[in-house]
Write a structure and sequence with these properties.
This protein is mainly α and about 200 residues long.
Length: about 200
């Protein structure tokens, strides 16, 4: 009896299988056995490509976190267009999609994973949230340079309010994602004292 199917791109297929398990069963359901069963491959395949399961999870998180770069680039491209609130509403909705929101508690759930991420990349212990924070901070700084946000705005505190509040809105896995109106309300409230002007 064969013990599994041949995987042409084993790493990526294992990552995709782990993502499906994570979305379906949450962090507690994500085990090496669950991943290999989901990928329909032999148990040894995972260990041929990764030293252990925490090494696998580290690379999974980094792979999925890297996918946020395109959302960060898209946010940066909106500087000076539309309204600051609308741009951030769209960005937070993209940043806190189902996969990033599922990965955040996985990092919290596993101490060894968090330590491995810290050893691998600066600030990696809070991967996903660190990337979202950096992207939002950079965007706000650019808008401040353009004068669309007041010159004395506390960018760091504003970023934490937006990222923390946005994460809380999206974090409840038992309900549908928040509406755009709900996200916009959060963003508009956070920005109420610092937005300088409407778009031309």
């Amino acid at each position: 009896m064969p013990t599994g199917v041949h995987l042409r791109d084993a790493r990526q297929q294992l990552f995709d299988a782990a993502e499906r398990v994570l979305l379906r069963d949450g962090p507690s359901g994500l085990t090496s056995r669950a991943v290999t069963e989901e990928a329909a491959c032999a148990k040894g395949v995972l260990h041929r490509h990764f030293t252990d399961f925490d090494a696998f999870l580290t690379q999974l998180v980094l792979d999925r976190a890297a996918q946020l770069d395109r959302h960060a680039d898209a946010l940066r491209e909106t500087v000076g267009t539309a309204t600051v609130a609308d741009n951030l509403t769209s960005a937070l909705t993209a940043f806190f999609g189902p996969v990033p929101v599922a990965i955040i508690p996985l990092i919290t759930f596993r101490d060894a994973l968090r330590a491995s991420l810290r050893d691998t990349v600066p600030g990696g212990g809070i991967a996903i949230l660190a990337q979202v924070t950096a992207a939002v901070r950079a965007y706000l700084a650019d808008e401040r340079e353009l004068g669309r946000i007041s010159a004395d705005a506390d960018i760091d505190s504003l970023t934490l309010s937006l990222v923390g509040g946005g994460h809380l809105l999206f974090a409840d896995r038992d309900h549908n994602p928040p509406t755009r109106a709900a996200v916009n309300k959060l963003v508009s409230s956070a920005l109420s004292d610092v937005v300088q002007q409407r778009p031309r």
